[in-house]
């Protein structure tokens, strides 16, 4: 049913809630605070609202939220860094956890892609080596029994 301006009131309310949930999360609000503000029943409902909003609103919002989260991690890191440098094991563990979280947030631990470029000369050399290997006689022993 339309509200007179051609928009579904439920859809408009959903969009408002999603926008507000992202705004609050960027300001540092907890999921519990977001749930309270939006009249949601639980933290998990607030989490789902934020995640749904991020998936709908695209990379820009995700990037903004990632930067906010990164700044929070930086602030926490700076609080315990000096203690960690003095050998405080609890502070060291805290710094390591912050570093692990930052690496996950920014994708630093992902495998690197390596582009392998081939040339006709390299391809020919590989083919020559493969042909040479195929022409060798099969081994009569195995490495397990010590014979070759």
What this model shows, in words?
The protein has 148 residues and is mainly alpha-helical. It has two domains: 1-57; 67-134. The protein is 69% helix and 0% strand. The protein is built from six helices and no strands. Helix 2 packs across helix 3. The radius of gyration is 28 Å and the shape is elongated. The termini are far apart. Mean pLDDT is 81; it is low at 1-7.
Mean pLDDT: 81
Number of domains: 2
Structural class: mainly alpha
The main β sheet shows up as: none
Count of DSSP strands = 0
Q: How would the global form be characterised?
A: elongated
Poorly predicted spans = 1-7
**Structure annotation, total helices:** 6
* Intertermini distance: 82 Å
| Element-level helix/strand string | HHHHHH
Work out the strand percent: under 5%
- Considering DSSP H and I runs of 4 or more, what fraction of the residues is helical? 55-70%
Report Rg: 28 Å
Key traits:
69% helix; mainly alpha; single chain; elongated; 148 residues; disordered N terminus; 2 domains
Give a quick rundown of the structure.
This protein is mainly alpha-helical and 148 residues long. The chain is 69% helix and 0% strand.
What is the topological layout?
Layout: H1 9-26, H2 31-38, H3 43-57, H4 59-85, H5 89-106, H6 120-135
Helix pairs in contact: 1-3, 2-3, 4-5
């Amino acid at each position: 049913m339309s509200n007179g301006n051609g928009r579904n009131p439920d859809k408009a309310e959903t969009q408002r809630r999603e926008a507000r949930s992202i705004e609050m999360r960027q300001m540092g609000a907890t999921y519990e605070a977001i749930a309270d503000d939006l009249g949601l029943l639980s933290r998990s409902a607030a989490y789902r609202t934020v995640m749904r909003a991020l998936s709908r609103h695209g990379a820009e919002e995700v990037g903004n939220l990632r930067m906010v989260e990164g700044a929070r991690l930086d602030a926490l890191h700076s609080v315990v860094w000096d203690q960690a440098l003095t050998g405080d094991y609890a502070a060291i563990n805290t710094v390591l956890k912050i570093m692990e979280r930052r690496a996950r947030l920014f994708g630093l631990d992902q495998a690197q892609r390596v582009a392998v470029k081939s040339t006709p000369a390299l391809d020919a050399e590989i083919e020559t080596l493969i042909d040479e290997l195929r022409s060798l006689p099969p081994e009569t022993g195995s490495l397990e029994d010590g014979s070759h």
